[in-house]
Amino acid sequence: MRLLALLFILFPLSLFADVGPRIYRVGVVSLRPLAFVNHQGDFRGIFIDFLNDLAKKEGWQLRFIEGDLPSTLQGLREKRLDLAIDIPYSSKLAKEFDFPKTHFITNWGQVLTRPSKALKSLVDLEGKKIVGVQNDFFLIEFINQSKNFLTPPQVFVAQTEEEALNRVVQRKADAAIISRLFDPERLEGLMLQVHSLAIAPTSLDIAIPRWQEPSLLQTLEKHLLKEQANKASKYNMALEQQYGEMRNQDQSSVFLLLGFFGVLVLFFLGVSLVLKSQVSLRTADLEAENEARLKTEAELQFAKEGLEARVAKRTLELTELNQTLEQRVKQEVQRRLEQEKLLIQQSKLASMGEMLSMIAHQWRQPLSTISTLAGGLKVQLSLGDPSPEKLDHCLSAINEHAQFLSRTINDFRDFFNPKKKQEKVVLARLLDQVVGLIGKSLETQSIQLVQNYAYKQSIVTYPNELMQVCLNILTNARDALDEKKVSKPKIILSGGEAEQGVYISISDNGGGISDEVMGKIFDAYFTTKHANRGTGLGLYMAKTIVEQHCKGSLTVKNTTEGAQFRISLPLNMAEPI
């Protein structure tokens, strides 16, 4: 019985023997001045002071464990940590862990470079050398965004922010990406420029696993709201000091200071109740002002985050626009090529009509002569047998004109025969062929053609296309002289050798081209002729053939008598002038 009674006494005592302060294991992602380890190995920072104050009030014991972001999050998942600080909030992490409804502090990634022009957007970092801290949230987010760049940047990782910044200073990298909460004092003397770009705006908070008791989250939220509302709290004072490093304070000095203020309060309370009333009223006013300030700061923060979101959205839109620009350029080039093919076809149809007209001019006189000879021979036969000499003369003349007609057909057939290969040609012979094609047409209209060209060297070019250009210019000169009713019309076809190649000059005495027309003369579909006589494609195609196909140049100017066209060609198209 005594033993049983002793067990009843000792058993409850054994239950309470192991009860002690609640111990929480806290994961710390280092970021000065929010949380860091000083040279003495002590944990310091705004987050650390916040949790130490709360632990003191709640009777907790805290064990801080330093790590990077991936290892700290894994520690929460594997229940090796009870909570973690300096965790960037995201909707993805919010599905795994609990966060206080009130954010601890907002943060984003900032870009630092050597002094330069301001960066307009993240697209300005295309193809640059970028450095950041290993496993840093903002560096990872930048890498994800840069996948949309046409030229992805080269990304390097450093172990610390100081190492990353020094790489930029030493010109080993073009820009560094670090947290905007990085201690400003540590930037002094580095001569680096901070750009107004925001990478992945977020907030740094306390993350709690879902398996933790709800009371822990409630306690953290309650204490955080109280700290933010109190203007004199360590939390607010640290933020106002621009995130300066928290200074160690002697605990005994704190108690002495609190005692001194207690004596002062008692003294003032004892002196006058009126003063106490005034202090109370003033305190109420300050609380109202503080609430108004907090509301304004919240509104400003909301507006700022909205602006940052719009900037990020616009940056993404510009990146997507840049990606589609190349495709649109290709489509436009293809459209222009198709349009040029259509213009060439229309030009060929117009040239065929002109050639038929030239053939008619070439054939008219020989056919008339053949008809006259045949008629005369028929008359002689009707009067009696002609003499052998006259018969031989008539037949020889008919045969000669028939041969002329045959040669004319061959010349025009060769002209229309498409030759896509370059050929080595004697330019004087090519111009003689051109004169043979259009000469009769000029004689019919009483236009004097002066030939004054001489070449010692042959050239490599596309002969048929070059003949088309010369015929087109000569035809335009003929039509201009006919339209202006020049009394003694004349066309001068000349040419020779220049410094870097050869040239062909075609001029007339038709009075020249007006200034109004001169600037449009090589435009597609521009013509001064009647609709039945011109399409506006001749000179446009002539310039295209000379400059794009034959690698030369085609120019025009007015002389004292009329217009002068000049074709300049290289000796070899592989060496354009």
Please give the structural blueprint.
Elements (H helix, E strand, L loop, with lengths): L1 H16 L4 E8 L6 E2 L5 E2 L1 H13 L1 E8 L1 H9 L5 E6 L2 H4 L2 E2 L6 E9 L15 E5 L3 H10 L7 E5 L2 H9 L5 E5 L13 E17 L4 H16 L4 H7 L10 H21 L1 H111 L4 H29 L6 E3 L1 H18 L3 E6 L5 E3 L1 H22 L5 E8 L3 E8 L6 H4 L19 H12 L3 E6 L4 E8 L7
Parallel strand pairs: 1-4, 1-5, 8-9, 8-10, 13-15
Antiparallel strand pairs: 2-3, 5-11, 6-11, 7-10, 7-11, 12-14, 15-16, 16-18, 17-18
How does this structure look, described?
This protein is of the alpha/beta class and 577 residues long. It has helices at residues 2-17, 46-58, 69-77, 91-94, 137-146, 161-169, 214-229, 234-240, 251-271, 273-383, 388-416, 427-444, 463-484, 515-518, 538-549; strands at 22-29, 36-37, 43-44, 60-67, 83-88, 97-98, 105-113, 129-133, 154-158, 175-179, 193-209, 423-425, 448-453, 459-461, 490-497, 501-508, 553-558, 563-570. The strands form 4 sheets. Strands 1, 4, 5, 6, 7, 8, 9, 10 and 11 form a 9-stranded mixed β-sheet that branches. It has a 5-stranded mixed β-sheet with strand order 13-15-16-18-17. A hairpin with a 3-residue loop joins strand 15 (490-497) and strand 16. The longest helix is centred in the middle third of the chain and has 111 residues, at 273-383. The radius of gyration is 48 Å and the shape is rod-shaped. The N and C termini lie far apart (124 Å). 25% of the residues are buried. Residues 3-18 and 242-265 have low confidence and may be disordered.
